[in-house]
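Appendix B, Record 12. Input sequence as logged:
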Amino acid sequence: MPRDADRTRKRILDAAYGQFRRRGYSRVSMDEIASAARLTKRSLYYHFAKSSKDALLSAVLEAQYRSMSLGRLATAPRARWRP
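Logged structural output:
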């Protein structure tokens, strides 16, 4: 994916996370996520081709898990290597 596509995908994931967190999964539509990401619904579906809201939630949770895991790795004490 080109850089712009990566940034757009991140915008979608961030917008979806914000909407799900504020209003709850069942109260948010794909139209509202597209609007929060400042994209058309068509663009949203381009980046998440043939996806449902369930698949988008899964991608959001995966991205959140990855960012938390990386944060823990960055702050974890480093083990010393001993021969």
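Residues 73 and 81 are 17 Å apart (CA to CA).
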